[in-house]
Amino acid sequence: MDAFVTQWGQGVDRWLLRLEPFWPHLAAMISVALAITVTIHVSQNKRDARAAAAWTGLVWLVPVFGALLYFLLGVNRIRRRARQLTGGKIETDEGWRVAAEPLPLHGHFQELSRLVGRLTHLPLTDGNRITPLDAPAAYQQMLDAIESANESIFLATYIFGNDAAGRPVVEALARAVQRGVKVRVLVDGVGSLYSLPSVVWRLRRNKVPVQRFLYSLAPWRMPYINLRNHRKFMIVDRETGFTGGMNIRAGYIQTPPSITDLHARLEGPVVGQLLRSFAADWLFSCGELLETSYRGLAQLGEVKARGISAGPDADFDKRRLTLLAAIGAAEHRIRIVTPYFVPDLTLLATLQLAMLKGVQVQLIVPQKNNLRMVHWASLHALRWLVSEGAELYLSTPPFDHSKVMTVDGHWVMLGSGNWDARSLRLNFEFDLECYSDQLAGTVDGSIDERLPDCRRMDTAAFRDMAPWRRVRNALAHLMEPYL
């Protein structure tokens, strides 16, 4: 046996020696073939010319490794799999009629409502009660709702910490399971790793049914590493919902908090749309089909609302198009609060056009960000908006993770989505569009309360910025398609 192994090894060595003069040519042929293959695939599958150009440049300038990165991060295989499992139907309601749909009170929002309806294939629901909550209040109300549940609890989140915030939720869910409540928990595959050990083992040890969205530690089994489920919502007894930007993490409830956020409690028919979105994600993750009928009352408040599911599957570009439509509908004022603001050129140009027609644009972003490169790129984009007349405010710590937009004191959009390429193109997001003077007034009031503690950044502040910082920000912005 040893003689055979020795003889085989010598044979391999001889072949390698014979091929040695040809290795540079073979390597060049392989790298060129990979680059050509990726270029063809990019040109046929990428709708964003800038992203296509960036990937093409990468695979030619970084041979082999660039193609490997594209295979892991650039190929969207999720759309095909989502269509196979759900048929793209579970999150839509094809039976609703435009003629029967309620319309916003203000005329210039009626066309916006019709447009978003055609985009999402979901009706605008009437009779909703939507209560904005800061993170500690939202966390406590979610815990109370879990404790009082008697039929079902469906919870989806990006990050579920195995910490002082996550453990009480696990214990409450376990008690719900023990009293016969149907519990389903969906955690993103990457988000579940923010705490080690992961909270998933604690959930399973307590017999709480849990799935991880697109999870695998094996790279060859993980072709979706760049596509994350960023949605955060909970539906209790198919009649009460919670959604917004809040993850389940200790930083929200510690004293003093290290992070703040905006979440909302939902009551009314729009909860059925949260339920449909969760059911689609759950079916995608494990193949189980859940009951999606809303059980609550039809008339609980005055808010007209609609859920907007967005992602790199059948829902591609829905959120981005909604934002463009809302900016175009504005007549007086647009207010945006977001932790990550690196929009594409089209969104920037649409905001600029709004300002040119006299619309006031106010943006609030954190003064200190947890993602430095995103913050630098954001400052570069914001510099141009400020030069066109936008008002920019930098919020002081704690880190504000809220994601909300109001238009003309009537339209509100809140949820999980940010203003960056990841949220607009890669992540699975869920946002809520609402039509209500009262709700918009409440949200605008909370924005007004935080403005005195913010630092205003005007053109002079950008002009006085150190030259090396401006260069740093501009270089970071070159990475916008990847941020």
Automatic annotation (TrEMBL):
**Superkingdom, taxonomy of origin:** Bacteria
CDD domains per the UniProt record, alphabetical: PLDc_CLS_unchar2_1 (cd09157)
* Gene Ontology CC, one term: plasma membrane
Keyword set, alphabetical order = Cell membrane, Membrane, Transmembrane, Transmembrane helix
Stretches that traverse the bilayer: 22-40, 52-73
Name the Gene Ontology molecular function terms of this record.
cardiolipin synthase activity
Location(s), subcellular: Cell membrane
What membrane topology does the UniProt entry give? Multi-pass membrane protein
A single BP term in Gene Ontology: cardiolipin biosynthetic process
Limits of the PLD phosphodiesterase domain:
225-252, 396-423
Query: Know the name of this protein?
Result: Cardiolipin synthase
